[in-house]
C-alpha cells in the first residue's frame, strides 16, 4: 500500500508541475490614452512603467517635452500630459500618445500632496533614461529617448530627496 501511495503521490506531483502556470497579474494600463497602447492600435504611443514610489499618497503626473534646449522642462512647454490618482500598490503603467516618431523627454512627478507643483522636499521625480540626479535639472542629453513608430516602452524610476541628494529609494 505504501508503494502505491508513493507512486500515486509522485504521479500527482508530476501532473501538477506539468499544468500551465497562471499568468502573473500585469498592472492595468492607465491614462486617457490607454487604448493607444493596445495590441494593433494605430498611431504612436509610449507605454511608461513608473517604479519605486515612496508611498501611495497624491497623484502621478506624466508629461513629455520636445527634444530642444529652448523648451526643455520649461513651464508650460510640455507637449502632452497625463495625470491620475496613485494606485494602491505596485508599479504604475501609463500610456501616452506622441504626435510622431521623434526624440522626447518624459518626466514623472509623484505629487504627494496633490497641489500640482513640485516640492523638492517631499515629491518624487523621474526622467526617461533614469539619469543620476542632483539638486538641479539633469542635462537634456541624459534624459532624451526615442519614440519609434508604433509603441515604445520605457521605464522611469522615481527619485526622492534623501538628505542632500536626490536618488531612488532602493539605492544606498
Can you walk me through this structure?
By secondary structure, this protein is mainly beta. Strands 3, 4, 6, 7 and 8 form a five-stranded antiparallel β-sheet that branches. The termini are far apart. The protein has one domain. The chain contains two helices and eleven strands.
Number of strands: 11
Quote the average pLDDT: 88
Q: DSSP helix count?
A: 2
Shape: globular
Taking pLDDT < 50 over at least 5 consecutive residues as the criterion, the unreliable ranges are 13-17
Query: Distance between termini?
Result: 58 Å
Helix-strand makeup class: mainly beta
* Main beta sheet strand tally, sense and closure: 5 strands, antiparallel
Estimated radius of gyration: 21 Å
Helical fraction equals 10-25%
Q: What is the N-to-C order of secondary-structure elements (H for helix, E for strand)? A: HEEEEEEEHEEEE
How many structurally independent domains? 1
Beta fraction of the residues? 25-35%
What's the helix and strand layout?
Elements (H helix, E strand, L loop, with lengths): L1 H17 L10 E2 L14 E7 L7 E8 L13 E6 L6 E6 L4 E10 L12 E4 L12 H4 E4 L3 E7 L2 E3 L2 E3 L5
Parallel strand pairs: 1-5, 2-9
Antiparallel strand pairs: 2-5, 3-4, 3-6, 6-7, 6-8, 10-11
Amino acid at each position: 500500500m505504501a508503494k502505491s501511495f508513493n507512486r500515486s503521490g509522485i504521479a500527482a506531483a508530476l501532473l501538477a508541475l506539468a499544468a500551465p502556470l497562471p499568468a502573473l497579474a500585469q498592472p492595468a494600463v492607465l491614462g486617457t490614452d490607454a487604448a493607444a497602447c493596445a495590441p494593433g492600435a494605430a498611431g504612436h504611443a509610449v507605454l511608461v512603467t513608473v517604479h519605486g514610489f515612496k508611498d501611495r499618497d497624491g497623484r502621478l503626473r506624466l508629461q513629455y517635452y520636445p527634444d530642444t534646449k529652448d523648451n526643455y522642462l520649461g513651464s508650460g512647454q510640455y507637449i502632452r500630459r497625463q495625470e491620475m490618482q496613485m494606485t494602491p500598490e505596485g508599479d504604475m503603467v501609463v500610456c501616452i500618445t506622441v504626435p510622431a516618431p521623434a526624440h522626447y523627454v518624459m518626466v514623472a512627478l509623484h505629487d504627494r500632496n496633490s497641489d500640482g507643483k513640485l516640492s523638492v522636499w517631499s515629491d518624487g521625480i523621474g526622467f526617461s533614461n533614469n539619469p543620476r540626479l542632483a539638486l538641479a535639472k539633469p542635462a537634456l542629453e541624459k534624459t532624451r529617448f526615442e519614440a519609434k513608430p508604433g509603441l515604445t516602452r520605457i521605464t522611469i524610476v522615481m527619485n526622492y530627496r534623501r538628505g542632500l541628494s536626490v536618488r531612488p529609494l532602493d539605492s544606498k
